[in-house]
Amino acid sequence: MEKKPHFVRREFLPREVPSISLALLLAAVLLLNAFLYLYLNKFYSSLGRVETEPGLCPFGHFKFGAVKNCSPWLSCEAINREVRKLKCVGEGAVKKVFLSEWKEKKVVLSQLTNSELKEDFLHGLRMLKGLQSKHVVRLLGYCEQQFTILTEYHPLGSLRGLNETLHIPKYKGMNTWHRRLMLAIDYVSVIRYLHSSPLGTLVMCDSNDLDKVLSQYLLTSDFHVVVNDLDALPLVNRSAGRLVKCGHRELRGEFVAPEQRWPYGEDVPFEDDLMPPYDEKTDIWKIPDVSNFFLGHVEGSDIVRLHLFDIHAACKKKDPAERPSAQEVLDTYRRF
Ligand SMILES: Nc1ncnc2c1ncn2[C@@H]1O[C@H](COP(=O)(O)OP(=O)(O)O)[C@@H](O)[C@H]1O
Ligand SMILES: [Mg+2]
After folding, report:
1. 97: CA distance to ligand 1 center in Å?
2. Which of 36, 71, 171, 225 has its CA at a distance of 20 to 30 angstroms from the CA of residue 319?
3. CA distance 48 to 51
4. Are residues 265 and 174 in the same domain?
């Protein structure tokens, strides 16, 4: 009696084990397939997402709005034929900026205003071409012969109007310390990008006062910051001993970095040839002032300021070499 079940089990096992393991094997294969399917699906769809992100068209191409395909930058002929100027929406020292229409889309046509500044204009265009990325306004076309550049239109305009924009009822909800800190993070991300760009270490020279800095950047409709005006962006090459100077005139005031000011006192008249050159750390000196503008005066912004006190004090070190890199500032901002 005792042995019977044992016997039964022994008799039962040799025939049942293969079918159970077969079923288990089948289940495992099915499960593996399911996992592989899910993983690959996720992998490909994430590739798809990257592809639809702006700035990832091949060089010389763009896409924007709902259009999925990349188109080549518009040529002189295409700009003359297909772009219609609507109204002037901005003007700086180098360009006049027109809201325009291209294929029922709003775009911006920038035209050189002062023929003495051709070189600056062409430098800005070269930079726009070489730096296309999420940090830079999208280039749609250009015509060197006519000194025109076609870019994406950003209806919220330059960062100069940030406080006014944040007081419009539609955007009041955006006027929080958190959003404002995000803008400061975006801004420092742009500086970090320029300092380690595909074209080398570039200094944002169009930045002698806060208003000037702010007018070179645009606020996108989804509240991000892109740099727009790249006309004054000289290259630093420290290993080759190449430093820069922002213009040929004397710079004064607390906004510019100490090394940008005439070092020989009031008694020695300014002379460009005697003015020592400097590097990208001038941009770091200016970060606290620009960030303070971003943070504004809303509930919580003073607490953020307090947390950023040490890194901002480091940005204001008199010796440029002691200032942090844009990456270090960014890391500190992001840790907040
Ligand atoms: N794509 C754009 N969308 C909206 N406004 C723009 C755009 N481009 C320029 N602007 C406006 O025109 C102003 C001047 O443009 P900018 O390129 O800085 O000219 P400049 O080289 O003469 O300084 C900007 O500060 C901004 O207000
Ligand atoms: Mg400008």
Report:
1. 6
2. 225
3. 5
4. yes
